[in-house]
Amino acid sequence: MTTLQATRLVIGRELRAKLRDKAFIFSTVSFLVILVASIAIPAMLESGPTKVAVTDSTYVEALQRAGLEVQQVSDPAAAEQLVRDGDVEAAVVAGPTVVALEDSPDEVVEALSTSPPVQLLDAPPFDPALTIFVPLLLAMLCYITSLLFGLQIAQSVVEEKQTRIVEILVASIPTRALLAGKVVAMTLLAFAQIALLAVIALVGTTVTDLDAGLLDALRPTLGWFLPFFVLGFIMLAAIWAGTGALAARQEDLGSTSGTVQMVVLIPFFAVLFLRDNAAALQFLSYFPFSSPMAMPIRIFQGDAAGWEPFVALAILAGTAVLLLAVGARIYEGSLLRTNTRTSMATAWRSRSTVS
Amino acid sequence: MTTVLNVDAVNRSFGDRQVLKDVSFAVESGRLTGFVGANGAGKTTTMRIILGVLAADTGTVTWRGAPMTRAVRSRFGYMPEERGLYPKMAVADQVVYLGRLHGLSTADAKRNTAALLDRLELGERAGDPVEKLSLGNQQRAQIAAALVHDPELLVLDEPFSGLDPLAVDTVVAVLRERAAAGAAVLFSSHQLEVVERLCDDLAIIAEGTIRAAGSRTYLREQYALPRYSVEVGADAGWLRDEPGVTLVELDGPRAVIDLDPATDDQQVLRAALARGPVRAFGPVRPSLAEIFREVIQ
């Protein structure tokens, strides 16, 4: 049994255990439902074309050109009645006068007015509201997923400690294989979930007919987001495992995982609040703990030069290697101390106890 | 029956506390070796060092004369004192998984698991998650987990604690089968009667040092008191006045006596025969509990 074979077996068990875990399935499914709903509901809420009642046939053509549904009626009283009944949103009677119930129907007014042509020199490729919404959604997704799956790693480590099976496992296979198996399995699951959400987002936005400009910006963003996310997740995975190993019981996790939770939380809020500050965002897009959230935003906004994501990714990978070593040492140093919480310092020093 | 496992001058400290002091003993294949000592004497630490879960500060553990390696240890089976399996995983899945971790193919692991669970009378619960089993059945599952890969050395830390008498019998029978098939079995216990009934060899540990080790017969001879039980035709009260004899117990014609070192047992026997018929005359073998009490002082 080589370390690699052992790792593969551990991966297999972790995956099977998670895929049968009802809480895990529930959280994944609810994530999907929220995403699908957030795409589908706005599309469904867009009711059909505005209906207009018209008494004078001379306006029909102009209204139809504006994409309105026109209904011809004989006299103003009938038109007014239709408006009151809510069968049409507005009526156009001789004059022309636009009749409506509560709000001035801008669409109808615009169709009947002449406005000068407008020429934009720097037109945004898509609705500016989306420039806030999309990056926020990505950062949020990154934050929630790494927290959720990171905690899962820690929990699965504590479970083995708390149930004491860890001693049999350590007597059977190298500790590294156990750690690597957990990290790989959970990274696979986290990636699968993110990739699934990304695919649904892409398909969903294509189907619901968003503007082409948005899709052109979204595709490279998601394309870069995935590697950033995976590396960012792996970077912290061993630390999560280490914090799990420091705990003796699930109840200890809250305190032992505090530091790593902050490492996820603080960059998220930094990105959230500093995203309009170009210099700050640029720094955050290189800083390894925030680059998985910040760099995709810059790519989406078209601010990042072609080489920039590569450099940020390299920094991220380097940090990941470093933190994997740190996490592994903490993990190995505290794994067999099953009776009480282990301090970080003790774990760091006592690695030599496990052969 | 050859010595397979050799623990040689192993020392281990936790902080300032030295838990093991020059611990040495051997385990032979095909035999059951009992590892006896009070709580905190160092049994679990020794077993963890044999399994490689802990490292020794100094000293060595060898297998068939060669240093331990991962590959060698994968042919060991271990049941730790603190039991544990995945609570939500089915018993059979769990045992198969541990078999796979010890290098069995999936097919072999499944076959061994099925046979073993049947043997341990756990076959019907194979598909149940461990948390649904009674404590006794969880213990059986734990033993299955230690045995699934047909280990050459079985290390069982307090295998009988928490077992009901029927389960003890089942487990004892299974361990004997394994030993008969050539495996070496090392088990710790503080239940001396069970050890007495079961083990071929013994190692007695107290305060981190091995106080006595060897086969049960050897130890009994080694630690035999100069004590004899006698049964004669009439009242045996005359033994009280016999030179070099201390009367320990008297019950009509039956007596238990201790002899002074200089006294010849045959001399006493002849004296008894001179007084009439002798129904029984023989040395009293000490029980394990008596040996244990003597050596740990």
TrEMBL record, chain A:
Q: Which residues are in the ABC-2 type transporter transmembrane domain?
A: 107-328
Please verify whether the record's keywords include Cytoplasm. Answer: no
Q: Does the keyword Membrane apply?
A: yes
InterPro entries, alphabetized: ABC2_TM
- Its domain of life reads Bacteria
Compartment(s) = Membrane
Q: Which keywords does UniProt give here?
A: Membrane, Transmembrane, Transmembrane helix
Describe its membrane topology.
Multi-pass membrane protein
Q: Which regions span the lipid bilayer? A: 23-45, 132-154, 183-204, 224-248, 260-289, 309-331
Q: Name a GO CC annotation attached to this entry.
A: membrane
Give GO MF terms, alphabetically: ABC-type transporter activity
Mind telling me what this protein is named?
ABC transporter permease
The organism of origin for this protein: Actinoplanes aureus
The uppermost taxa in this organism's lineage are: Bacteria, Bacillati, Actinomycetota, Actinomycetes, Micromonosporales
Automatic annotation (TrEMBL), chain B:
Quote the subcellular location field of this record.
Cell membrane
Q: Which InterPro entries does the record cross-reference, listed alphabetically?
A: AAA+_ATPase, ABC_transporter-like_ATP-bd, ABC_transporter-like_CS, ABC_transporter_ATP-binding, DrrA1/2-like_C, P-loop_NTPase
How would you describe this protein's topology in the membrane?
Peripheral membrane protein
GO molecular function annotation: ATP binding; ATP hydrolysis activity
Q: Which intervals hold domain ABC transporter?
A: 5-232
Q: Provide GO CC annotations from the record.
A: plasma membrane
User: Mind listing the UniProt keywords for this protein, alphabetically?
Assistant: Antibiotic resistance, ATP-binding, Nucleotide-binding, Transport
Task: Cite the SUPFAM superfamilies for this sequence.
Answer: P-loop containing nucleoside triphosphate hydrolases
A Pfam family annotated for this UniProt entry: DrrA1-3_C
Enumerate the Gene Ontology biological process terms.
response to antibiotic
Family statement drawn from the similarity comment of this UniProt entry: Belongs to the ABC transporter superfamily.
What PANTHER family does the entry give? ABC TRANSPORTER ATP-BINDING PROTEIN, ABC TRANSPORTER ATP-BINDING PROTEIN NATA
Question: Which protein, by its recorded name, is this?
Answer: ATP-binding cassette domain-containing protein
What is the originating organism of this protein?
Actinoplanes aureus
